UniProtKB/TrEMBL annotation:
Organism taxonomic ancestry: Bacteria, Bacillati, Actinomycetota, Actinomycetes, Kitasatosporales
The keyword Iron is annotated on this UniProt entry: yes
Location of the Rieske domain: 9-112
Signal peptide annotation: none
MF GO annotations: dioxygenase activity
Entry keyword tRNA-binding: no
InterPro entries the record matches: Cholesterol_7-desaturase, Rieske_2Fe-2S, Rieske_2Fe-2S_sf, VanA_C_cat
UniProt protein name: Aromatic ring-hydroxylating dioxygenase subunit alpha
UniProtKB keywords: 2Fe-2S, Dioxygenase, Iron, Iron-sulfur, Metal-binding, Oxidoreductase
Highest taxon above the source species: Bacteria
Amino acid sequence: MTAFVRNQWYVAAYGREVGRALLGRTVLGEPILLYRTEDGRAVAMSDRCVHRRFPLSQAPSRLDGDRVVCGYHGFTYGTDGGCVYVPGQQRIPRTARLNTYPVIEQDSFVWVWIGDREPGDTVPPRAPWMDSPDYTVVSGMEPIDGDYGLLVDNLMDLSHETYLHGGYIGTPEVAETPITTEVDESAGVVYVSRHMDDAECPPFYAKSTGIEGRITRWQDIEYHAPCLYLLHSRIAPVGAPGPNADGSDPHAFHTEVVYGITPSTETTTYDFWAVARDFALGDQEVTDFLRENNHTVVMQDVVALNVLQQSLNTEKAGYQELSINIDTGGLAARRILARLAQAGTGQRSGATAR
Ligand code: FES
Ligand SMILES: [Fe+2]
């Protein structure tokens, strides 16, 4: 199992999922209740009533204004987690308080801070395409019955597109083209690039861009451990001019593929997926096609990772993997996750020792 990394921001939901209905999510094993106050602020607190642990996200629990009323015996909590009402007595026990979680709403995501200390100046990494007027976005979330490390591995090595996603986003050139990998240890970011000069155009891009011939296809990955994965994808007809020195790139089509990789439990993961594009912005047919096609691709990964987790569960301890050049990005990501996990644990045990 891939160790959890605490003292980090995680995507708990899309902003659109958090409203005046109670939403329950489990992040790093912690049950979290999310809702929006009457003035529109997203709040996050423990999803277990302090009385008999009833999940506050479950009916008949409900909101009363900005307060949450437990559906079992009526304990009532304010947005600061403090209990304001218990049935049958005036005195409210001092310990009747829910843990609350720092929340930042950014780039259409609701991020929650999971940790033993306050976030201080630490802010979530950015995915500005998610709510930019210059992009049109399709997005969704799929749960995976697998360790989040399996999804990190999957996304860091796109050679699997050729095999698992053939006929959708995969073509022979993806697996055939070598990658370059760079690591920014201090920032905890892994970069993996694969630039294909002359490649078949897969249906995903042929149908959405209208390109008929072969393409130049660039895949530039940025993985901000632990939770945010970005794939900058550039598609242009072979022979089209490259990007200009000022960064503009009028002859190419761009998609920004965004994943929030959120460990839920040790064996389950939330896969928040999105594709933002800078072309055919108002074209509903393209939007519908990309949503449908990308959802199919995501499900191909989900099914494969579920199967993989099942098979790993039956492995004898100490099995040996074999890694090759395509795995350098994934291995770098694992190293960073292990280092961050250890750092988080160190802080926690340090605090306990005092
Ligand atoms: S379990 Fe919530 S009030 Fe009893
Ligand atoms: Fe995939």
